[in-house]
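From the shared-data thread, chain only:
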Amino acid sequence: MILRVAGIVVIALTATALADDEDRFDAAKFVGVWVLTKSEAGGAPEGTIVEFGKDGALLITLEVGGQTVALKGTYKVLGDKLTVSLEPPGGGKEETDADVMKILTHERIVLVDKGKKATEFKRKT
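Structure, as tokens:
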């Protein structure tokens, strides 16, 4: 009897932890404008602006060679994964990439890529 009760408690705690984890990665928290503050991956430079729309639209604005470049695409949140699809400037095949979310709050995002390198953002608006 004690083992059965203990098992029910463990299941209830696990379900609560999973629900909390899903809430932590709620796609609605992404909506808004974010600024890239740190990147171990060496991709986009610090100061890059990323706008996540309510409808899954994505706009990335960055400086490359002294010129401003805007990349359009879409994003999707599933569990702890953020999948981004971007249209390359000048056309071509859409590129898709997925990162794991480590932190997602209303003020901060930390993503980790396949190479275990982190990228951090802070909310601009």
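The chain has one domain: 2-123.
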